[in-house]
Amino acid sequence: MEYILQTNNLTKIYGGKSVVDHVNMTIKKGDIYGFIGKNGAGKTTLIRMVAGLAHPTQGEIKLFESNDLDKQRKRIGTTIENPALYPNMTAKQNLEYYVKLYGIPEKDAVDQVLKLVGLEDTKRKKSKNFSLGMKQRLAIAIALLGNPDFLMLDEPTNGLDPFGIKEMRELLLRLNKQGITILISSHILGELSKIATVYGIINNGILVEEYTKQELEERCKRCLKIKVDDTKKASMILEENFQTVEYDVLPENIIRVFDPIDCSGEINRKLVLSGVTVESISLVGQDLEGYFVELMEGKNHD
Predict the structure, then answer these.
(1) What's the pLDDT tens digit per position in 74-101?
(2) Is 90:122 a contact under the CB 8 Å cutoff?
(3) Cβ atoms 239, 229 nearer than 8 A
(4) Which of 20, 29, 60, 289 is deepest in the core (most CB within 10 A)?
(5) Which among 98, 198, 107 has a CA at the least distance from the CA of 138?
(6) Is 0.70 surpassed by the pTM of this model?
(7) Distance between CA 167 and CA 160 in Å, rounded?
(8) CA–CA separation, 177 and 185 (whole Å)
(9) Strands, E, within the chain: which ranges?
């Protein structure tokens, strides 16, 4: 397994406050890494440190499993905050400027990335007259000029309308299929859930958790959450009376039943008649947005 980005206790302190606090992040080759957090959580600061635009107070960054960051950063494309575009230039002129600035030798680089991001037909239209979605795609085109292996995008869907968000999503999926590993920072988990393969949740500078898409979906799965005095006996009753093994047993005498979930009354009755004390029984589970909100508020998730 090839690692694209690894951080070890990465920390950035501004004015005595840890904006990024001992973050250990891992991104593997081929990931679309959804970097989730509220505004001000530390997402942009971390991206700036990885890109070399801010110096870490403490900790280590590895890119492509190497400590030679100056060399490896040449393999990264980045968009941070507002797109840095020249408003009186066309899309092509903007790209031609950056080709010269970066010293990129490929003759057809501009036409290639314009086509890749769907801006090949903008012709003489100046970027100041672009929609926000077009400006975001042009910013990504600039980031793609050096044929990067790793793309870091800071809030690329921020402010976009639903059509612009759909276009951005389709673009990122195309880029990923072409072999580009992508980190996308966002505070909108619902949208990221349509493309991300891995998630990292940051809150107040601390990386709360990292998990795969499958692990996140499992955490949000609807189930009956039952608190009893005897989980072993309750488990036997569930299997004997409801022919199910779709449950798990958690600490603090909690059982989660994933199937069936539509007969809580009958399950409660059977448990009580069999001598099991049921302290509580409830249907739990939510969408990804709800899960994210609760996690940011520090609520417990079993």
Answers:
(1) 999 999 877 689 999 999 999 999 999 8
(2) yes
(3) no
(4) 20
(5) 98
(6) yes
(7) 10
(8) 19
(9) 3-14, 17-23, 26-28, 32-36, 58-63, 76-79, 150-154, 181-186, 198-203, 206-212, 223-228, 247-250, 254-257, 278-284
